Amino acid sequence: MAEKRNIFLIGPMGAGKSTIGRQLAQTLGMEFLDSDSVIEERAGADIDWIFDVEGEAGFRKREERILNELTQNHGIVLSTGGGSILSKDNRNVLSARGIVIYLETTVDKQFERTQRDKKRPLLQTEDPRKVLEELAKIRNPLYEEIADITIHTDEQSAKVVANQIIDMMDNLVA
Average pLDDT over the chain, rounded to whole? Predict the structure, then answer.
């Protein structure tokens, strides 16, 4: 890759966007950013607190502003929130400003990876698996719509997935 294009990681919670993103950025010598972390840093509060106070709509407005800003950087690996693709504006910005990588995973793997995580407001419910299934029905087609590359992450290490992404990006550019 002669030029370092922006790489945007999309996918559901528990797909490995942050872990794989850090590995990918390190391997490529690029800056890693996590949109959820930037939102928390700027708000001075956790995402679950933002959801409690502002609701999901308030959080999504913050997310839209942050994604618009962060995607204007050059040479970054950006991990996005699982629901960021719900906004058409976000989908357009991600598609236009970088290579979009969809990290695909099964609901079973998501459930396994997130079941002990208390910092995911949408999963603080009686039946988190049902929530994951409902989110997948709505969001998976949107991930697929804007993805330049799709990689299944269930049984692979972050390093293996990062190397696959690099190989596929080289093929995309070639």
Answer: 89
Task: Give percent of the chain above pLDDT 90.
Answer: 66
Give the phi and the psi of residue 83 in degrees, each rounded to 5.
-95, 5
The 10 Å Cβ neighbour count of residue 42 is: 12
Please name each of the domains of the chain with its CATH number: 6-169 (3.40.50.300)
Q: How many angstroms separate the CA atoms of 119 and 127, rounded?
A: 16
Alpha helices in 29-174 (DSSP H): 35-43, 47-70, 88-97, 107-114, 128-146, 158-173
115 marked ligand binding residue? no
The CA R_g of the chain, rounded to the nearest whole Å, is 15
129 marked as part of a ligand binding site: no
In angstroms, the CA 146 to CA 117 distance is 28
The Cα–Cα gap between 143 and 3 comes to 25
Q: How confident is the model at residue 121, as a pLDDT?
A: 64
- pLDDT tens, residue by residue, 65-124: 999 999 999 999 999 999 999 999 999 999 999 999 999 999 888 888 777 766 676 667
Question: According to the annotation, is 139 in a ligand binding site?
Answer: yes
Tell me if 71 is assigned to a ligand binding site.
Answer: no
Residue 18 in marked binding region: yes
